[in-house]
């Protein structure tokens, strides 16, 4: 799997979360989420489009391609596994794990992440109650149903 820069991964993950709320994500929405300028977003969208990670049409917004979605799920998986590890194994309070996991999610060794997942007992949810994708990027339907029935 190709390696992506931290900036590219942050953009991919932000698009992944924003596109849950709307069909297409606008440059302005992404700029606000990432606290940057729309011109910077436009440059990055061109790069990600060239890498076939998203579908982008100027003035109409963009969304992740199938490949981009797979990359995003991998980033989300790493982030949520690190949150679980930090909370459950190192005793960090659940409200402190997010910022640390933001850094650790960019460690992309597939072997390390799979061993971490196994070490943790293949958890289905992070400390915030969000489902953790499996190594294939799948989120089991029963985990989605459970999440929807949980408290906020």
Summarize the structure in words.
The chain is mainly α. It folds into two domains: 6-64, Winged helix-like DNA-binding domain superfamily/Winged helix DNA-binding domain (Arc Repressor Mutant, subunit A, Orthogonal Bundle); 74-149, Diphtheria Toxin Repressor, domain 2 (Orthogonal Bundle). The protein has seven helices and two strands. The chain has helices spanning 6-18, 27-34, 38-50, 66-88, 97-104, 110-119, 141-149, and strands at residues 54-57, 61-64. Strands 1-2 form a two-stranded antiparallel ribbon. The longest helix is centred in the middle third of the chain and has 23 residues, at 66-88.
| Overall pLDDT metric | 89
What is the straight-line distance between the termini? 35 Å
The number of distinct helices, counting runs of at least 4 residues, comes to: 7
Shape: globular
Strand order of the largest sheet: 1-2
Under CATH, the topology of the largest domain is which?
A: Diphtheria Toxin Repressor, domain 2
Largest sheet: 2 strands, antiparallel
- Rg on CA atoms, Å: 16 Å
| Number of strand elements | 2
CATH class of the largest domain: Mainly Alpha
Percent range of helical residues:
55-70%
CATH superfamily of the largest domain: Iron dependent repressor, metal binding and dimerisation domain
